[in-house]
Amino acid sequence: MAVYTQVDQAAADRFARGFGIGPVTACDAILEGVENSNYRLTTASAPHILTLFEKRVDPDDLPFFLGLLEHLSARGVPCPVPLKNRAGKTVARLAGRPAAVLSFLPGKAVTRPDVRHCAAVGKMLAVLHDEAADYPASRPNALSPTGWRTWLDRSGDAADALKPGLTAFMRAELEALARQWPTDLPRGVIHGDLFPDNVFFDGDRLSGVIDFYFAANDILAFDLAVCINAWCFDDHDHLRIDRSAALLAGYSEVRPLQREEIHALPLLCRGAAMRFFVTRLYDWSHTPGSAQVTPKDPMEYYRKLLQHKAVEAGAHTMDPYT
């Protein structure tokens, strides 16, 4: 979440009334995240989330994303539900952007995940994969290995400003990943961005999963790799075996992993690190100064990528993927 497009309370109120809610008594910007512009709308009945979809989101993909939320919510997954306006549409225009109003979920994100959080997230990810298995729509993952190369190219030599020679290193790593990338692992709908700020807890209970705007059809275990990178490293970017073991155990309670998926996890984790390095690098070098958002550090994912390479090379004596 972030704010690129400014919306005042009066404009939010007019828009919300078209979706059958209001009056809006407060419209508060939500500054976390980097993708879309988000506001919390306060009304007499209940709070809601107003999302304006920014340039990285293709409007043609919105029916897939919002339909997936409706599909998962109907199956008991705690995710936001998009409201429909008087025309029966979940998307309308606001401030020159496609926009939607979604239900508000209780709870809050955790800033320091522990093994209990990791186990709960692993289990919820497997539930999400299972419940989305019969979702009839499909969407290719634009942030697959081919897409990573595109985002790195768009950043030019920006990586060299972070570390001399880093652009060439990442290009070589991209080539290696493309050669080794698996093609025969189980596939389905993935969340694609299940970071701690996209998961809410109410006490010890996982109460919500949000931000499905990178959802796509891809390798299911790649989604698990994204979560390992997002949840299982400490504040010094060191991989925590206790957290990864809890996350994998929680996932396997619902959907046991195949041997081939476990074997591929180090490579998939390298790929997941590359995916977030290249998009963070682009944001770091291209985010306008007027945006109310702080670009995230690409080097965090460079350091994580190096650790996964060390695991593959046998430099770690304990396997964090089993």
Compressed to H and E, one letter per element, the order equals HEEEHEEHHHHEEEEHHHH
Number of domains: 2
Q: Uncertain regions: pLDDT < 50 for 5+ in a row?
A: none
What is the strand tally?
Answer: 9
Output the CATH topology of the largest domain.
Aminoglycoside 3'-phosphotransferase, Chain: A, domain 2
Strand arrangement within the widest β-sheet reads 1-2-3-5-4
Q: Provide the CATH superfamily of the largest domain.
A: Aminoglycoside phosphotransferase (APH), C-terminal lobe
Overall geometric form: globular
* Secondary-structure arrangement, i.e. CATH architecture of the largest domain: Alpha-Beta Complex
Characterize the biggest β-sheet: 5 strands, antiparallel
Which descriptors apply to this entry?
43% helix, five-stranded antiparallel β-sheet, globular, alpha+beta, 9 strands, 14% strand, Aminoglycoside 3'-phosphotransferase, Chain: A, domain 2, 322 residues, 2 domains, two-stranded antiparallel ribbon, Phosphorylase Kinase, domain 1
